[in-house]
Fold this protein.
Amino acid sequence: MFRGGFGLLYNRYAGVIFDNIRQNTRSLPRSAVAALILVRSRALPRLEHLVCARANKLANSYPANPSLSFGIAPDGALCGDAACDTATKVDIYGAQPKTPVPYVYVFSYEAQLEPFKQVIIKVGYQGNRSRKLVRTIDLNRFTPGDTFDGHQDKFQNKGSNGQDCGPTNPTCLAPHATGNNRFNRIFFPLPDVNASYDAMVVNVTRRLNHGLQLAGTYTWSHAIDTASYEVGYQQTDPSDPALNRANSDFDVATISRWLHTGRCLFCGAGMASSAAPSAGGV
């Protein structure tokens, strides 16, 4: 007997990867000048005002932090002085106006045979291909070259060969900006992650007398992707996702399960007992 199937699944976002926009400058900016962020207690119920751009004059509110109370510049940066000539660097979050919905192709097929009486063997394949999954990158690190001179200032002054940028340096023809120096980190969800999963599944079932049945399943699988998490970690070189293509962080190579079922002699008619130990390894 042969059976198989194919499907297309859409992995809609629950909004989690976009929720951090509440930390942008107009809401709750994250700045290095503030050591405490969103800390609450009974004694200090509104301690988050220590890091807000402005604070009201309610009894349960702290006064505006002088380092964070100069307003917001037209480009969204947090003003560092009254004239807004400098900026207090904060983290901000963005997203594409139309972030595509990730989708997954799933497919499987299985062959079943009975080589001996009361012995059933199933050998199958299960796999999927995921497309347009998201990884969160720091746009201020997306273009390499910032730290080639030993300084992280969002500007490339030296090429990858360690020489000053200029017309005679083939790795850097001229000094140029690699990011926006008015902000600290600019987090951005980028939907360019692909992933794959392939598995061989073997199942053997043996029917015995008195309703007893023994079954064992062995799975060999391999999961590969270019990023295993949507938000949090940062890739070594975010500009080239192919460099991060490797085993998934959650990859488990082998899984074995054994199951026995049978009628329970002390449970009455129609009752059954079962046990299913399992083992897995990377």
Observations:
- DSSP finds one helix and 15 strands in the chain.
- The two ends are 32 Å apart (CA to CA).
- The longest strand covers residues 186-207.
